Amino acid sequence: MLATWQGKPDPTARSLPPGRLLALCLLPWACGMSGASSADAAAGQAKAQVCVVCHGPQGNSTNPAYPVLAGQTARYLYLQLRDFKEGRRSDPAMSPMAAPLSREDMQGLADYFAAQKPLPSPYKVEAARVEAGRKKSEEILCTTCHLGGFSGQNEIPRVAGQQYAYIVKQLEDFRAKRRTNDAGNMTSVSRNLSDDDIRNLASYITNLN
After folding, report:
1. Which of 43, 148, 158, 167 has CB 3.0 to 4.6 Å from 152, enough for a Cys bridge?
2. pTM for the complete prediction?
3. CA 161/CA 79 separation, integer angstroms
4. Cα 9 vs. chain centroid, distance in angstroms?
5. What is the DSSP string of 16-77?
6. Domain shared by 109 and 141, yes or no
7. What integer is the mean pLDDT of 12-28?
8. Partner residues linked to 136 by β-bridges
9. 174-207: pLDDT as tens digits
């Protein structure tokens, strides 16, 4: 591309190298995207203030009934909010909270909580149950999806250090098919778990900090 002078090509100008030309063309777009990401993060933090009541400051819940959101994978958080909004997952507290959220709201919230640091769980576990839970998790291959340390990936949640009571309830709900928004994967895993298996797994997982 040649520069112009008084509407005509400038004979003293040289063509820009293709790589530099592409960089110049993309610069305004990149700057715009950076600004949008910053705005989304700020919007997510502002939206998250109402979540503190149940999920605690920065998503570190202190109420056993509500999950820790801090450090959760952004993709998982976004999908759960979307499922609550669209009725694929139901909860008397979360369904009405998610109903008015826009796609941008959900993405902003997901990005905000994913960036927060989870605190160690204060739940007092029994060593025998932790060991039994560890063995059961190896038997049913939990880390195939949840990865080592139960750190999660993409749409598979991080559950390490999660609230004990919340883990128990979700496993029970999957087993009973009360929760079905994961294409049946967790129902398949949990259908043969006993109550003791569930409590042992929850003890082991919540102890992973």
Report:
1. 158
2. 0.80
3. 21
4. 53
5. PPHHHHHHHHHHHHHHHHHHHHHHHHHHHHHHHGGGHHHH-GGG---STTS---TT--HHHH
6. no
7. 39
8. none
9. 999 999 999 999 999 999 999 999 999 999 999 9
81 lies in some domain = yes
Distance, in Å, from the CA atom of 157 to the CA atom of 23, rounded to the nearest integer, reads: 37
Backbone torsion region of residue 65, taken as left when φ is above 0, otherwise alpha when ψ lies between -120 and 50, otherwise beta:
alpha
Residue 50 has a pLDDT of 94
The total of structural domains in the chain comes to 2
- Which amino acid belongs to residue 120? P
* Domain of 80, in residue numbers: 47-114
- The set of residues, in sequence order, having a beta carbon less than 8 Å from that of 119 and lying 6+ positions away, is 60, 68, 70, 161
The verdict on 137 and 105 lying in the same domain is no
pLDDT in tens, 84-125: 999 999 999 999 999 999 999 999 999 999 999 999 999 999
Q: Using CA atoms, how far apart are residues 47 and 24, in angstroms rounded to an integer?
A: 35
Beta strands in 78-206 (DSSP E): none
